[in-house]
Each structure stands twice: as C-alpha cells, then as structure tokens.
Amino acid sequence: MNDLFDCLNSKCLYSFNPKMCALSEERSSQFQFLNEAKTIYENIRLVKPNTKYGYHLPCFDGLVWSINSITMLYLQQKNLQFNYLLTPRLNQNFLENTFAVFRQRGGYNPNPTARTFRSTFSIQAKNNLFKASELSNCESDMDSNLLAPTSDSDSLLSNVNNSDSDSDSSSTLDDDDKSFTNPNDNLEGENCEISLEMCSNAYFAGYLRKSCFDHFKCFKCSKEIDSISCFLKKPIETLINFVKNAQIILKKLVEQKPHRKNIASFIISFLFAN
C-alpha cells in the first residue's frame, strides 16, 4: 500500500526510492508494479462480508480506477512527446483543495450549480494565469525588453538625437551615457534574440566564476569577464557555453539513468575531451 501511494504521488523526476520517481518508460518496474497492484485490488475480498457492500468494497474499485486513469494519462502524454509524468496533483488532496476554492467563492456554497461552477472556474483560471510568480521578486516576464534589438531601433535613436539637437539647452554625454544609448553595442549580433534561458545561463555563469575566484584566488579567472564597466560583470562566452553543455548532459543523464553516480566527473571528462 505504501509503495502504491508513493507511485501515485511522485513529486520529483528521480529519487532514491524508485517508486517515488516520475512515471517513465525508463523505469519499467513502476508499470509492472502498478499492474500487479491492479490485479490484487481487482481480486481482493473481505474475510467477513460487509452488510452493505458484501465481500468487495468500493474503495478497492477506486484504486483500480486511479491506476487505470493515470496509466492512460501517461500514454496520452507520451504520444505528445512528454517523457515522464508527475502525479502529485492528480491525487485527492489537491483536487479537494481546488474544489474547496470553488465552493467558497462568493460565500459558502457546498452545492454549486453548473453555471456557478463554470463562472467560478473561469475566474479562478484567469487569476492564476495573470498572477505574478511567488518564486520571484519581479512581475511576470510578459513585457517587451527595452534593450532588445528591433528594426525600429535606429529610427528611434535618430529621433531622440534630433529632438536633443533642436532643444535650447545643449548637454554633453559622458562615456557611460553613450554606451547606454545604443542597445546594439553590447549585443553579439544585430539579429540575435535574448531569451530568458540565455539570461539565466549568463547569470549562473557569472555566479560560478565569482565562486571559483573567491575559492581559488586565480589571477586568470579575474580576467574571464567582458570589459564593460557600466553593467554587471558579464562572463565570457566560453564559461556560458560550459553551463549550457553541462545542462544538456544533466538532462540526458537524469531522464535516462536517474540513479547514476559520478555525474560530475562524467561532465568534466566530456567537456575537456571536446
């Protein structure tokens, strides 16, 4: 019973307990266990019959339905090119909490009508969709990037320069201001697109460089940054590529062999070999 609950409540991609890993074909023992549990609960009988249900309780049928539904859901997701399935939000606790929100909307209403449920579900879905993430200290990433290169950037800069030249008060810009006026100066190419993943990789690479420098006090590491004085110290492209390649290796190893050891040594040997 404990193994079945662990298998139907998997919260992470891999774990020391194979039953608590996400459902995946890489761990065929999970589906074998689910089929065995399904057979047991289909044929289980009480020693003494219940006055209302006889020898077979409805809860056993519920477990069989849960196993069938999760297995069918995984097969459907597999056809959509998803490699694994996490099951914690499919259990009773999360569903009860969700429906409790619907019943409490607009006051206590234990038996909402279909119309009330539909409107309440729509409101709750919209609130969750436009809600800012609680795991970050900023708004949702739905705004346009002011520093991203666009086709109108040159015309925009020319309009700004013209408006400045026509003004009565003349002012001069220092070197720092000039480096900020043109957003394309600090980009690798004119048509490159800055994604959130690129920013995260660069940020983590900078953190990795600082940690290594603070630990080893390497003079060479102190030069492994771009010479830009008015922004955060950006790591060089080699270190950013190191982070990207390490993520690719981790993704392959974790999804295929989650219990494999010596992942760090494998990453080092692979990267230095190439």
Automatic annotation (TrEMBL):
Residues 90-121 form the Transposable element P transposase-like RNase H C-terminal domain. It comes from the Eukaryota. Residues 152-184 are annotated as: Disordered. It comes from Aphis craccivora (Cowpea aphid). Signal peptide: none annotated. Residues 152-172 have a biased composition (Low complexity). This is Transposable element P transposase-like RNase H C-terminal domain-containing protein.
